[in-house]
Amino acid sequence: MTAGRPPIVQDGPDVLLAVRVQPRASRNQVVATGGESDRQGPESITIRLTVPPVEGAANAACRTLLADRLGIAQSRIRIVRGETSRNKLLRIRDAEASTILARLRSTD
Fold first, then answer.
1. Is the residue at 2 inside a domain?
2. How far is C-alpha 22 from the geometric centre of its chain's CA atoms?
């Protein structure tokens, strides 16, 4: 994730979401840390996955977990940077940053 840039950014009709993926975790989980104020977004977002980072399994699990958590189709989530890295930049098509933030916080 880029220093000084929030992990959730509105980019036209889409949202850019910067995340850190932790494969081989004990359970699937989305963790947003920092940003205690209602108006302020989280400082970082970590996605913990039980699958290993082998042959794209972690990328697929990341998209599946986020789609379920956000209540959207997986096809709306695309990895734009970090296919083979733990730090990823995701593009969520046709979304509002405020809605994404609210849904991420709703099940914390």
1. no
2. 12
pLDDT of residue 1: 47
Q: Look at residue 35 in the predicted model and tell me its pLDDT.
A: 65
Which residues have C-beta within 8 Å of that of residue 101, sequence separation ≥ 6?
8, 41, 42
Q: Assess contact for 100 and 15: CB atoms under 8 A.
A: yes
- With respect to residue 1, please indicate whether it lies within any of the assigned structural domains: no
d(CA 71, CA 96): 13
Residue of 81, 103, 68 whose CA lies nearest to 5 = 81
Taking Cα atoms as reference points, which of 92, 88, 93 lies closest to residue 20?
A: 88
Q: How many residues make up the chain in this entry?
A: 108
CATH number for 57: 3.30.1200.10
Q: Judge if pTM exceeds 0.90.
A: no
